Amino acid sequence: MTTNVEQLWEFRDEPCKVCGGRNFRVLGARGGDAHREGAGTKTRIVKCRTCGLIFPNPMPYPAGEDTRYANVTDYFEDVMAVEGEAQRRHGDVLAHEAERRLGRRGRFLDVGCGRGEVVRAAGERGWQAEGCDVSAEFVRYAREVNRVNAHAATLEQMRYPDDSFDAVTLVEVIEHLYEPAETVRELSRVVRAGGLVYLSTPNEESVYQSLGNLYYKARGRDWVVNLCPTWNLYHVQGFSPRSLRYLLEHNGFEVEEMVVYPGTFAVPQGVGLWGQVERVGARAIEQLANALGRSPYMYAWARKRG
Ligand SMILES: [Zn+2]
Q1: Staple partner for 244: which of 34, 42, 235, 239, CB 3.0–4.6 Å?
Q2: 247 C-alpha to center of ligand 1: Å?
Q3: 136 Cα to the center of ligand 1, angstroms
Q4: Closest to 38 in 3D by CA, of 223, 227, 211
């Protein structure tokens, strides 16, 4: 099936959604002609000079959709491929760590809860836990399989009362949101003073991105490897420790811990001898990144002021 990308995406010229700035540095292009697999449509990628956020400018929106979350609702098959038990173990670590930092348990919310493993793990550790997710399919799974309290809605749509939660987690969520600052402001309203938020997201200033962008430049292309996967519109905000800190500290939270951590990055799918060289190169970059502390993943624990 061929699709007309002009009909799928609507491009809007917008400021940086973390700091509101309009002073950008152009990093290059991604999508369409500027993408290894020709996915999506060519889009300019910029970096905000004020806070360091990396994002498409103009910003692509699903055309004709009345929801700003249309970019995350077709994630079901990808996430179903992730092992559930690993997610549950991650949830257990988060629930344990939140209790250690807080000195007690209380009400726990997982935003973008997917299949509900984090909510389930927090519940098993004695938290009064619930989750929300824009995908009705996920929420049905979370309720039926993991037997958790989950809602098919965004955080904003839930309209929780002020000071509802002691700990809120967003596992690989913030990079999907068109309005990340609005969401963090809503978090600061629903989290009690002294309560915690945990956010994890890719580090867009890892060695992998820096060298990947240089690699394309050396081959005479203006492509960048940031915001992967970009299409079908997935990651629309690219954070670094600096921009994630800016987002939290300008919207009611104090960062307690910011950690950049190693992980296996998606390796290029090139074929033949060149593909093999690229794969070996990508693994070497991964090891270098780990050694330099500029790995591709990060998380932050932050505490609500007041
Ligand atoms: Zn900015």
Answers
A1: 239
A2: 9
A3: 32
A4: 223
Going from the Cα of 291 to the center of ligand 1, the distance in angstroms, rounded, reads 29
* Gap between the Cα atoms of 207 and 143, Å rounded: 40
CA dist 175 and 75 (Å) reads: 14
Separation between Cα atoms, residue 154 and residue 172, nearest integer Å: 15
Predicted TM-score (pTM) of the model is 0.89
Residue ranges and CATH numbers for the domains of the chain are 5-67 (2.20.25), 76-204+239-304 (3.40.50.150)
Please tell me the distance between residue 203's alpha carbon and the centre of ligand 1 in angstroms.
Answer: 16
Ligand 1 midpoint to CA 53 (Å):
5
Average pLDDT over residues 246-256: 98
Whether residue 167 is predicted with pLDDT greater than 90 in this model: the reply is yes
Q: Are 54 and 43 in contact (CB under 8 A)?
A: no
8 Å CB contact between 187 and 197: yes
